[in-house]
């Protein structure tokens, strides 16, 4: 399918072929008919992406601070790779469209194949086919054309701005900024029984506002503007001002304070400078409000991504209900968006539309639509990116999941001389093609089956979100593939049992290798520490402290379905490292948390004691309440009169016989490179890198930790 994208680093625009998105839980697949270019918002986005790195840094000081902090703890090179992975990608464009549903997830009852729908949010891109979560999708009334329905998201933004204003019948409202949102705002206010005055820099926008029902409209630069406002409000000033302009200047905020009456409301919808002058706002005791995009639910992952609605009795107007209400206004002809459409471009010519918006082509525009062709009879499931290369490599690799971690910590370490990169699959087609293009995969796909069922692929790397790991491992093993899966191996006993069953069945193909991404045991400092204790004749005592840092409660890792929580999703790393150092398998665990209830969701701060089969004891202190300036990980090992300290995989201190030695690397070395290289070599050498039984024991130990937290008692494995 065709999709419009922009290079994040250089800002260049492209219309390219990418795989159609995959159907996921909680949403629908929509074939677009029209999408709306929101000129002000998208022009600003395009311009920002075209800025140099220095300009981007200046405009995002908080992000720069975060990156610098990460560099201190993860190393400059490691963080640099992550940043460049993002900058070298191509980003989607667009957030308002309309089309027809062609597939529905089995847990969605709101829609059926064939429904005409309007779509909003980050999924409603300028692309032929979309995946849209159900709360960002609404049915289009039969009386509304698909061209008009494509305005729904922008209409919802205008509607939410009006709701924040809380207008009452007969009030006079001033709208500053008469672009798309402003013109729609005027019509909604008129439908609410208000008198409306429009203000804009552009004379033609002012004229259009009058055509669409404004009682008066003026140029910002017109002489006597303040007197005109006073005249139209009988000397009182505006009851409310809605700012829908887009400018870095604070002039709209200044003007709003000057023309508003005593105790009026000023509502900011657009993207403008917010330097609020004290005098008018203080003397008039003005109420300054902000309108958050489409309405309640915006930026809430539980609402937008997971489909959890707010009860109508508590939140009457959510973003989805605003979208539905806007379509009702269009159906009843109280809002006319046909008069706003000045241009329609086929998706193939989308670059011409953006040239016009950027000012390269001097032409008057307001509402610009992109039009999409009817469905092809048979759409390809994969998109070729690079031609097949002649290679003597005996190993062919496919990737399922390729987010920031995979692009910075796995893919760069695959030696293309010894392997062939065949295909990469992610749920988002544009991302799949980004990765394929960057790392040299032959094809991009959105259906995992294209990877694990491919006869040309013998090794599968799985780096998706946690809830997909087990099922993809099982499928890959059933298709006789070597498997490298990022941690965790599974989220529960049932998933783990399925993997064990599939692995044992795969032993008929004894050459198959199975590996979980426990990279820390491959860190040079950990390996050296283990060698230091090679002659120790007694069990070890190990203290492992992790300053993990805070994760917002709506982060997907905390979701028990998608992420499994931080114990299962992250602590498995540290259990494996202690297993490696002590040469024992966990036999019992005891865990305590700072939280006394809700162990699964509140287990960010825990102390774990693990006893191993050879008598060693490991104490893991996993913390989210510490200061970020403290290095993330520290391991202290005691055995046989020796002590070793691994400090954040950059510094190793060993103590023996009263002497101290220090070994230090230039960067944080967590073992990702060695892990990938040794896994590939283990396939060539036909030997397991980590015993399968050890992988199972580590995974099972995380389940027992949860049980211990919930019971308050030690749990045997």
Describe the structure.
With 717 residues, the protein is of the alpha/beta class. The protein folds into 4 domains: 2-151 and 337-371, Medium-chain alcohol dehydrogenases, catalytic domain (Quinone Oxidoreductase, Chain A, domain 1); 160-290, NAD(P)-binding Rossmann-like Domain (Rossmann fold, 3-Layer(aba) Sandwich), CATH 3.40.50; 382-511, NAD(P)-binding Rossmann-like Domain (Rossmann fold, 3-Layer(aba) Sandwich); 520-716, Dihydrodipicolinate Reductase, domain 2, CATH 3.30.360. The chain has 23 helices and 34 strands. The protein has a 9-stranded mixed sheet with strand order 33-32-31-30-26-29-28-27-34, covered by helices on one side. Strand 32 and strand 33 (659-664) form a beta hairpin. The longest helix is centred in the C-terminal third of the chain and has 20 residues, at 692-711. The two termini are 50 Å apart.
Nutshell version of this structure?
The chain has four domains: 185 residues, Alpha-Beta Complex (Quinone Oxidoreductase, Chain A, domain 1), CATH 3.90.180.10; 131 residues, Rossmann fold; 130 residues, 3-Layer(aba) Sandwich (Rossmann fold); 197 residues, Dihydrodipicolinate Reductase, domain 2. The strands form six sheets. A nine-stranded mixed beta sheet has the order 33-32-31-30-26-29-28-27-34, covered by helices on one side. Strands 3, 5, 6, 7, 8, 17 and 18 form a seven-stranded mixed beta sheet that branches. Strands 19-22-21-20-23-24-25 form a seven-stranded mixed beta sheet, with helices on both faces. It is elongated.
């Amino acid at each position: 399918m065709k999709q419009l994208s922009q290079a994040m680093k250089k800002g260049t625009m492209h219309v390219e072929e990418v795989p159609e998105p995959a159907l996921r839980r909680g949403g629908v697949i929509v074939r677009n008919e029209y999408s709306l270019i929101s000129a002000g918002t998208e022009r600003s986005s395009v311009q920002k992406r075209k800025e140099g790195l220095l300009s981007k840094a200046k405009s995002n000081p908080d992000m720069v601070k975060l990156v610098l902090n990460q560099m201190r703890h993860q190393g400059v090179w490691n963080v640099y790779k992550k940043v460049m992975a993002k900058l070298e990608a191509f980003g989607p464009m667009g957030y308002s469209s309309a089309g027809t549903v062609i597939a529905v997830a089995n847990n969605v009852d709101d829609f059926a194949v064939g429904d005409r729908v309007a779509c909003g949010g980050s999924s409603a891109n300028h692309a032929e086919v979309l995946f849209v979560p159900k709360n960002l999708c609404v049915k289009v009334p039969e009386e509304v054309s698909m061209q008009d329905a494509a305005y729904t998201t922008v209409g919802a933004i205008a509607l939410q701005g009006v709701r924040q204003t809380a207008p009452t019948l007969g009030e006079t409202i001033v709208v500053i900024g008469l672009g798309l949102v402003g013109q729609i705002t005027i019509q909604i206010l008129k439908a609410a029984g208000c008198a409306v005055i429009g203000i804009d820099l552009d004379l033609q926008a002012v004229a259009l506002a009058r055509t669409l029902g404004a009682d008066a409209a003026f140029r910002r630069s017109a002489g006597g503007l303040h007197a005109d406002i006073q005249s139209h409000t009988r000397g009182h000033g505006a009851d409310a001002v809605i700012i829908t302009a887009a400018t870095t200047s604070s002039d709209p905020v200044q003007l709003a304070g000057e023309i508003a009456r005593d105790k009026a409301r000023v509502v900011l919808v657009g993207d403008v400078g917010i330097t609020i002058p004290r005098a008018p706002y203080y003397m008039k005791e003005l109420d300054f409000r902000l309108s958050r995009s489409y309405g309640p639910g915006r930026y809430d992952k539980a609402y937008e991504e997971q489909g959890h609605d707010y009860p109508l009795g508590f939140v009457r107007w959510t973003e989805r209900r605003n979208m539905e209400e806007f379509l009702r206004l269009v159906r009843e002809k109280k809002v006319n968006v046909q008069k706003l459409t000045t241009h329609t471009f086929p998706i193939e010519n989308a670059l011409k539309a953006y040239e016009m918006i950027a000012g390269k082509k001097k032409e008057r525009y307001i509402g610009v639509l992109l039009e999409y062709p009817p469905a092809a009879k048979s759409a390809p499931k994969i998109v070729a990116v690079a031609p097949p290369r002649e290679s003597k490599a005996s190993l062919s690799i496919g990737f399922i999941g390729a987010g920031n971690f995979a692009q910075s910590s796995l893919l760069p370490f695959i030696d293309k001389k010894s392997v062939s990169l065949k295909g990469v699959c992610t749920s988002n087609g544009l991302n799949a093609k980004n990765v394929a293009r960057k790392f040299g995969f032959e094809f991009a796909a959105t259906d995992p089956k294209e990877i694990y069922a491919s006869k040309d692929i013998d090794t599968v790397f799985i780096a998706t979100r946690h809830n997909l790991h087990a099922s993809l491992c099982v499928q890959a093993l059933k298709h006789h593939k070597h498997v490298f899966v990022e941690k965790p191996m599974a989220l529960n006993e049932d998933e783990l049992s399925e993997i064990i069953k599939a692995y044992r069945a795969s032993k008929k193909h004894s050459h198959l290798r199975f590996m979980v991404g426990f990279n820390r045991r491959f860190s040079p400092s950990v390996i050296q520490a283990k060698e230091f204790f090679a002659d120790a004749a007694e069990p070890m005592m190990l203290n492992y402290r992790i300053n993990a840092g805070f994760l917002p409660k709506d982060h997907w890792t905390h979701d028990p379905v998608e992420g499994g929580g931080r114990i299962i999703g992250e602590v498995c790393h540290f259990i494996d490292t202690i297993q490696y150092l002590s040469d024992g398998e966990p036999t019992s665990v005891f865990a305590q948390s700072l939280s006394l209830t809700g162990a699964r969701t509140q287990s960010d701060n825990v102390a774990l004691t693990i006893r191993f089969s050879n008598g060693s004891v490991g104490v893991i202190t996993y913390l989210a309440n510490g200061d970020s300036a403290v290095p993330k990980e520290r391991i202290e090992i005691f055995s046989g009169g020796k002590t070793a300290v691994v400090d954040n995989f950059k510094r190793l201190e060993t103590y023996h016989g009263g002497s101290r030695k220090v070994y230090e690397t230039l960067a944080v070395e967590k073992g990702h490179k060695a892990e990938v290289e040794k896994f590939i070599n283990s396939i060539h050498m036909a030997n397991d890198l980590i015993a399968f039984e050890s992988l199972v024991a580590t995974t099972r130990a995380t389940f027992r930790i949860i049980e211990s937290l919930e019971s308050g008692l030690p749990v045997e494995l």
